[in-house]
Write a sequence for this structure.
């Protein structure tokens, strides 16, 4: 997932939006994929971009807004450089995922779904990432971390902080 | 037996291979356990020693608790599996194989037989180990053995043979007959007969039909479909091809996969590209005039999209809201056309059934649930992982034989949660329940898609019911009132109970609301949402009452209801609990039993975790 580097807003020209919509043949049925493509490129879907997509596809703004807000993986605001997806599925819950989330909240002074002030982290508890044998686990920018504890999590947060102060974050991909 | 044995399957993978092979488990669970860095270390070690070997990534063989897993196959020998491989033990394993010509006994789990190769002495065969004994692998048979990104590995293990057989020897009607004979029922949890579903879609008039694979596995605690997609993606494509051929007039299929599974999506993309290149997908497949192609659609995060009509709505770019049936997808599905929608595991079984016959598949399983079922076994259990057993296997055998029993020996079994947010809890008295569709329902849960979460006595049943209800409440799409509002009120009551504010009559009200939500919700999500509540009240009413009347949480999970005390008899006066308390509520003097001041205690559990003698409860 690509992110604009800690910028509060991004600039996407209308031409760029039109181009993405055209790639999908301006089909109404492809609206979810179009929004996914935009988000992958820019990190979130700003309001004016959503409107433009609606105009391109001939979909009323109300419906566009309905689709965007229905799915938990669309964002209307910029997000942090590191997305802390902490699994709170059943197996992780049973093995203490709640404490993990609390530890992050305490350490980074954020609530669920919020960004840190420096836009470095976003805390995003998610339901089941499917690695239950390694519970509790988390996925950070596509990298998986298993058998976590509160202390381990804090260690990882420190590592990520250090990394980002020395170099720009690399595109993490678990499947490469 | 018509089907290919593990030995024969494995032999196909080592045909013409004269150098050692090192398999590394690279499914999501393996990667989370550090498989990537193990791979780097293995490469370095090979270079250092100047050994020419091939490194092959594989999917999940099921032993997730043993990840990272590394297998070594020397030419002509059986494949040896090593568990929990760490940097330090790699040189030892290499010494054993490459210097001494044996295996590293200390770290080996088992050996996987290969036809034509020879065994090592003193190491159990895979099928003899506790975890695999009792398992029958059909749909997961290739997972962990083959390289999921290699179409050649798939073909070497009988892959696309069913497609060839079907297109050259079978009419669509015969394919449907075999599916009907197999008795295969929807493995996503619905349990509808696959043969019948295909037949109905075939009978539905239409010049244009669609095949949809439901890969939106959203139940927390379930990862069967992920393991199949990551470990054997081609089998799902082959199943979709069979469905397309059987229903007729289907040129296009969709795989709707949840976005939380990036590796599964990557594997599918590669599989589809490779299958197109070899003409197993595309136009005029294998020169037979049959054409079919598959497109992947990524979900955007909505649990309700696992429900078939909601999934179809989402596929067409709408909000993922379910629609009332009829019309069924077999009549009006994608773009209003007749559509077959099957789950990943269902489709993964199809190739095996076509190749070996419906009767062969039906020879496994119980009376009404034929064949095998995969389960994701997790929670407080020793061997967490992916298992596949004949339907009807007793729960006891899953938990204590295959699962190896409880994670912590001293804490006994309390309940098994089956079927995720739509399921329920089965207590110790139900351990002899045969796990198939009917018997699990009779026990108050559902087999569902196959998540089994084991809970021990240290867990709280009320908290579990609350957990699942919170999940469904969050994921309720909001379309119908019983689900949207009913689940919210139920959650409020449960939350109150866990906070020590429960009242007399709460349980009756919960049951009343449950029945209402169950019978009046629009789709399966709402109709099943009260299940976790009903089943837990049925079996653990006393525990609910302890929360309500005594303001006591027997599992010591609900923070507001915990009163930590030191048991004098068990306290060894070691003092480990004192320094860990962040509020100074634990007082201790040398040689004295520790004391906890409940006024200042914040129930952080630090002292409980610090006590090695379980003297604080």
């Amino acid at each position: 997932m690509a992110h604009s580097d800690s910028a509060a807003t991004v600039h996407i020209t209308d031409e760029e939006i039109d181009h993405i919509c055209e790639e999908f043949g301006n089909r109404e049925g492809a609206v979810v994929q179009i929004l996914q493509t935009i988000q992958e490129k820019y990190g979130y879907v700003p309001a004016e971009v959503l409107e433009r997509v609606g105009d391109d596809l001939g979909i009323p703004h109300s419906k566009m807004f309905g689709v965007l807000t229905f799915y938990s993986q669309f964002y209307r605001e910029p997000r942090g450089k590191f997305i802390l997806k902490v699994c709170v599925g059943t197996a992780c819950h049973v093995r203490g995922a709640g404490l993990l989330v609390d530890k992050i909240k305490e350490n980074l002074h954020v609530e669920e779904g919020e960004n840190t002030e420096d836009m470095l982290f976003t805390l995003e508890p998610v339901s089941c990432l499917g690695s239950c044998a390694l519970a509790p686990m988390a996925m950070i920018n596509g990298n998986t971390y298993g058998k976590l504890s509160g202390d381990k999590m804090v260690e990882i947060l420190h590592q990520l902080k250090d990394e980002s102060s020395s170099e720009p974050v690399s595109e993490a991909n678990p499947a490469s | 037996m018509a089907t290919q044995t593990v030995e024969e399957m494995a032999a196909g993978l080592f045909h013409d291979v004269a150098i050692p092979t090192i398999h590394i488990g690279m499914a999501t669970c393996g990667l989370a356990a550090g498989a990537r860095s193990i791979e780097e270390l293995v490469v370095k070690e090979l270079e250092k020693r100047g050994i020419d070997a091939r490194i092959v990534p594989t999917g999940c063989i099921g032993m997730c608790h043993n990840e990272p897993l590394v297998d070594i196959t020397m030419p002509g020998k059986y494949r040896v599996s090593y568990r929990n491989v760490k940097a330090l033990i790699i040189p030892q394993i290499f010494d054993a194989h490459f210097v001494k010509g044996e295996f590293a006994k200390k770290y080996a789990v088992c050996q996987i037989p290969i036809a034509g190769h020879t065994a090592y002495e003193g190491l159990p065969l895979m099928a003899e180990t506790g975890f695999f004994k009792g398992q029958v692998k059909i749909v997961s048979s290739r997972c962990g053995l083959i390289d999921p990104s290699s179409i050649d590995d798939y073909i070497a293990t009988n892959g696309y043979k069913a497609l060839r057989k079907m297109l050259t020897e079978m009419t669509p009607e015969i394919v449907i007959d075999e599916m009907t004979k197999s008795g295969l029922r929807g493995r996503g949890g619905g349990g509808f007969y696959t043969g019948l579903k295909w037949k109905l879609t075939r009978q539905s008039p239409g010049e244009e039909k669609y095949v949809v694979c439901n890969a939106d596995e959203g139940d927390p605690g379930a990862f069967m479909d992920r393991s199949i997609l990551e470990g054997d993606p081609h089998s799902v494509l082959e199943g979709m091809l069979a469905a397309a051929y059987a229903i007729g007039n289907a040129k296009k299929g969709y795989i709707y996969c949840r976005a939380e599974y990036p590796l599964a999506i990557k594997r599918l993309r590669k599989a589809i590209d490779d299958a197109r290149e070899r003409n197993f997908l595309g136009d005029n497949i294998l020169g037979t005039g049959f054409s079919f192609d598959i497109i992947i659609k990524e979900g955007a995060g909505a649990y309700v999209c696992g429900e078939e009509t909601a999934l179809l709505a989402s596929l067409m770019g709408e909000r993922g809201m379910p629609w009332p049936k009829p019309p069924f997808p077999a009549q009006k599905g994608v773009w209003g056309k007749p559509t077959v929608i099957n789950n990943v595991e269902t489709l993964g079984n199809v190739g095996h059934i076509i190749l070996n016959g419906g009767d062969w598949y039906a020879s496994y399983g119980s009376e009404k649930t034929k064949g095998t079922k995969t389960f994701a076994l997790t929670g407080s259990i020793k061997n967490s992982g992916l298992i596949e057993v004949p339907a009807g296997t007793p729960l006891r055998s899953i938990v204590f034989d295959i699962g190896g029993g409880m994670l912590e020996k001293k804490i006994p079994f309390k309940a098994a949660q089956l079927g995720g947010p739509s399921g329920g809890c089965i207590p110790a008295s139900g351990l002899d329940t045969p796990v198939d569709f009917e018997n699990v329902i009779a026990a108050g849960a559902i087999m569902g898609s196959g998540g089994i979460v084991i809970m021990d006595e240290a867990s709280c049943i009320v908290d579990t019911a609350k957990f699942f209800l919170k999940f469904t409440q969050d994921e309720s799409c909001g379309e119908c009132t019983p689900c949207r509002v009913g689940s919210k009120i139920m959650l409020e009551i449960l939350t109150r109970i866990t906070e020590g504010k429960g009242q007399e009559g709460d349980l009756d009200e919960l049951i009343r609301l449950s029945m209402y939500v169950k019978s009046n919700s629009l789709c399966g999500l709402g109709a099943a949402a009260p299940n976790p509540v009903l089943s837990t009240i049925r079996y653990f009413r006393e525990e609910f009452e302890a929360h309500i009347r005594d303001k006591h949480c027997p599992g010591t999970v609900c923070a507001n209801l915990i009163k930590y005390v030191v048991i004098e008899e068990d306290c060894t006066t070691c003092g480990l609990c004192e320094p860990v308390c962040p509020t100074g509520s634990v007082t201790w003097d040398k040689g004295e039993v520790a004391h906890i001041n409940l006024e200042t205690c914040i129930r952080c559990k630090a002292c409980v975790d610090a006590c090695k003698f379980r003297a604080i409860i």
Observations:
- Chain B touches chain A through 58 residues (CB under 8 Å).
- Residues 434 and 602 of chain B are 43 Å apart (CA to CA).
- The longest helix of chain B spans residues 531-549.
